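Supplementary notes for students who missed Thursday's class. We covered one full example, reproduced here. Read the sequence, then the structure, then the short commentary at the end.
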Amino acid sequence: MKLERLGAVFVGIVLAAAPAWAWGPAAHQAVTARAIDTLPGGLKTFYKTHRLEMPTLAPETTPGEDGADRRFALDRLLAFPFADLPRTEEALKARFGDSASVGRLPWLIDEAYGRLVDAMKSRDKTKILTESDTLAALVTDLANPLALSDNSDGQKTGQHGLWVRFSVRLPEVLTGRLKLSPDAAHYLDDPKEYVFSMINGGYIWLDNLLYEEDLARRGTPGYGQIYYEALASSRAGEILKQRLSRAAGDVGSYWYTAWTAAGRPELK
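Structure (token representation):
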């Protein structure tokens, strides 16, 4: 029991040491802005009109809250493709006990979605924009393969600092070249279950990302311009664009589904 408790404490320390967001501001801004373009008709008009009132797209962007919770290091508990993954927090804790402290990201998304539905029903513009922004940030976090792994910073593969290099610096380096191509927003039949399909769809890129980053840093003197240009032009750059494009489509779909669940109110 003492060893289990020490293990849980160690896990908490490692997770707490991670950055607050699974991506840097450049990635979150790109996804949120592009998600608006995936929406239909009047809903798109509402978001476009008020886009600068959303915290992520406001002229003065402030970092989001939380750190350890905005993760889901699932490979600490199960091997991919995560068969028989419990669908509720209670069931996860019941099965894995203290080891289940891997983050709350799937349930944070579900909670944010519920708040957005309520905000849509009340037609409270400020709440709608705030909750839409929160939901967008969480869905985007889940698109990052590193947010789903116990090797989130490359510490297990000798790639220390990978989190910042891939999730923060690379999107900044690609600013202006980061052309996202999301699918049009669509209605999600089961938003709660959809989260778990997103998990597998993101995690599958992890090994490719680790391999490509390792290639990019070979023969480069440190992590300067040469390294980042090599990383951007490698498959890792394509993985970044693919993940953020998918995130933008998923964000739009969650917004659209929340609006539909609220009875499709007229928003101004």
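Commentary. Confidence is low (pLDDT under 50) at residues 1-20. The chain has one domain: 2-261. If anything here is unclear, bring it to office hours.
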